């Protein structure tokens, strides 16, 4: 057993996992404020990356300006989605809203294809590709940066949900009708959660765009992000972070053992197994809220 | 004379009809007046239209695809028939909906915070909370536990406290006694009476428990089949033989001889 190699797998797995968390935080934000799993988060992430590129390449702004500007644009887009599409569905069965988000994801993918085409573009953040060395362990710089962004967002949102606005969003997720009855604007709250999730999508889009290039494949991050969010408990930001690390480590270490046996490709299987087992064994995830049944 | 009466009523509901899904007529021309600073009860059996009446006043009909198709509602002389639920809360109407419906995953303290009106300062909010904990000391004891695990009585207290944070002028309660032990109902009604006296808060109370309700209100309306069939002071209603028979459990004891049909028909005609 080569311990150096194993810890390298684990550490890089954990960093990759935190990048899944970065994506999953967006899902959790929307779920926490409206109890709807947002299947369009992949599409939003992809659009976030494209908007950054459009501002940086097509308009010619420097990246340090293009990224915050894209965050502002996406914040507006998030609010717009609530105003145009979701508001009509308030109070309808969750499955309707779920289908709407799926349709939105397809719509966003089609739109980027129409505007920017399907060729992969590079983000070129300027982060060096040379790995860092800690003793004998290789660590990718961009993964380290992304993990740092994920942790920063985690802390920011943990604090946010203790503020008055954050508490109101959690109240909306608990009970729309009761929220209306005490004058909480459910519509604005849901809009705000989409806006914040869209900002998170910019962060995830930039980091993932740097790693795998910007094209429609970015939206497929949804599968891993959803797995992380479900494992973490869908409405827990802490859960998303810890579940991300767990999935990243398990995926990296286990696939290293399995790949030689099955001839490669076991990563996807591991992700699928984690998702299915979570739903079967612990549907509310590691840290998710239980539905309270009083007797 | 008429104008003077109008000025004394904080809420006036005139011949209001409510349609659900554009087809189902849930209430058929209900008129209810709430004089300022008084406690009024809406009585009636299940499905009579009491909750719908409250939702028409609070604006929560819209969430259930209902709408006011005829009539008008004025609050402090302002027509609110078309106002949004949120605007009505800001004007001072707060509706404690049926079934308590506290925010289960929040603590009681967070439940109160969630209801804070926009722009309420932190110090005002804390003062409001202290006042509410003063009315309901049990809530203060449990303010950091999860609201979903409070007892039924505590949840009802929290639901009322949460409504009080919005600083209402008219508080509407939908069946606050539902599923609670009689001593708790007495405690909660006692506190409502105290708030009504101390702060001059007007209260509109929907109850099936007519006996308990008529003890604390000044007037009552009896609603059946979406219509007001009787209106009078609490004393008059308590001594009415029909009310005694159907709602207070007194009167005829031989159930074979109870003349449900003919009496109801007499009200409705």
TrEMBL record, chain A:
Entry protein name: Amino acid/amide ABC transporter membrane protein 1, HAAT family
Keywords: Amino-acid transport, Cell membrane, Membrane, Transmembrane, Transmembrane helix, Transport
Family according to the record: Belongs to the binding-protein-dependent transport system permease family. LivHM subfamily.
Chief location: membrane
Entry's transmembrane regions: 12-31, 62-81, 93-117, 137-161, 226-249
Keyword Transmembrane: yes
GO biological process: amino acid transport
Family matches, as InterPro entries: ABC_transp_permease (IPR001851), BCAA_transport_permease (IPR052157)
Bilayer topology annotation: Multi-pass membrane protein
GO molecular function: transmembrane transporter activity
Pfam families: BPD_transp_2 (PF02653)
Entry keyword annotation includes Transport: yes
Localization (cell): Cell membrane
Record GO cellular component, one term: plasma membrane
Automatic annotation (TrEMBL), chain B:
Matching SMART domains: AAA
Keywords for this protein: Amino-acid transport, ATP-binding, Nucleotide-binding, Transport
Domain ABC transporter: 5-250
Any Pfam family matching the protein: ABC_tran
Biological processes, Gene Ontology terms: L-amino acid transport
Record GO terms (molecular function): ATP binding; ATP hydrolysis activity; branched-chain amino acid transmembrane transporter activity
Homology family: Belongs to the ABC transporter superfamily.
UniProt name for this protein: ABC transporter ATP-binding protein
Naturally occurring in which organism (per UniProt): Thalassobius vesicularis
């Amino acid at each position: 057993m080569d311990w150096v190699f194993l810890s390298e797998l684990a550490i890089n797995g954990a960093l990759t996992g935190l990048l899944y968390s970065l994506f999953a935080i967006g899902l959790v934000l929307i779920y926490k404020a409206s109890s709807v799993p947002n299947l369009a988060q992949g599409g939003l992430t992809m659009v976030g990356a494209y908007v950054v590129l459009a501002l940086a390449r097509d308009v010619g702004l420097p990246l340090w300006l293009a990224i915050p500007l894209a965050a502002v644009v996406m914040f507006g887009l998030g609010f717009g989605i609530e105003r145009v599409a979701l508001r009509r569905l308030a109070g309808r069965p969750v499955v309707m809203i779920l289908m709407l988000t799926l349709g939105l994801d397809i719509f966003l993918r089609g739109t980027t294809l129409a505007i920017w085409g399907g060729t992969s573009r590079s983000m070129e953040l300027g982060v060096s590709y040379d790995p860092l060395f800690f003793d004998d362990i290789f660590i990718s710089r961009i993964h380290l940066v992304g993990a740092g962004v994920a942790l920063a967002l985690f802390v920011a949102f943990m604090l946010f949900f203790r503020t008055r606005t954050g508490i109101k969003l959690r109240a909306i997720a608990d009970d729309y009708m009761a929220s209306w009855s005490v004058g909480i604007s459910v519509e604005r709250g849901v809009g705000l959660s989409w806006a914040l999730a869209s900002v998170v999508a910019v962060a995830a889009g930039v980091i993932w765009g740097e790693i795998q290039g910007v094209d429609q494949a970015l939206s497929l991050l949804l599968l891993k992000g959803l797995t992380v969010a479900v494992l973490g408990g869908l409405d827990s930001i802490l859960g998303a972070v810890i579940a991300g690390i767990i999935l990243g480590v398990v995926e990296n270490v286990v696939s290293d053992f399995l790949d030689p046996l099955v001839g490669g490709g076991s990563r996807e299987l591991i992700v699928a197994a984690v998702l299915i087992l979570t739903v079967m064994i612990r549907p509310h995830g590691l840290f998710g809220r239980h539905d309270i049944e009083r007797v | 004379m008429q104008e003077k009466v109008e000025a004394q009523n904080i809420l006036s509901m005139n011949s209001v009809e409510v349609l659900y899904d554009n087809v189902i007529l849930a209430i058929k021309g209900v008129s209810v007046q709430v004089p300022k600073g008084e406690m009024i009860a809406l009585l009636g059996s299940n499905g009579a239209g009491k909750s719908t009446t409250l939702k028409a006043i609070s604006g929560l009909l819209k969430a259930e695809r209902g709408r006011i198709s005829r009539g008008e509602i004025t609050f402090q002389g302002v027509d609110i028939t078309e106002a949004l639920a949120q605007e009505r809360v800001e004007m001072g109407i707060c509706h404690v909906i049926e079934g308590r419906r506290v925010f289960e995953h929040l603590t009681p303290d967070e439940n109160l915070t969630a209801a804070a009106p926009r722009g309420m300062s932190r110090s005002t909010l804390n003062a409001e909370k202290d006042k509410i904990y003063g009315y309901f000391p049990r809530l203060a004891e449990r303010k950091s536990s999860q609201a979903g695990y409070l007892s039924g009585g505590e949840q009802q207290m929290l639901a009322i406290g949460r409504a009080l944070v919005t600083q209402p002028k008219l508080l509407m309660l939908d069946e606050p006694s539902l599923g609670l032990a009689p001593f708790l109902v007495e405690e909660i009604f006692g506190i409502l009476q105290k708030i009504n006296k101390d702060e001059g808060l007007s209260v509109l109370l929907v109850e099936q428990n007519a006996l308990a309700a008529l003890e604390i209100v000044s007037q009552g309306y009896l609603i059946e089949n979406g219509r007001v069939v009787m209106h009078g002071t609490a004393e008059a209603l308590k001594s009415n033989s029909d009310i005694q028979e159907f709602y207070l459990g007194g009167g005829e004891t031989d159930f074979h001889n109870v003349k449900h049909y003919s009496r109801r028909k007499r009200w409705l005609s």
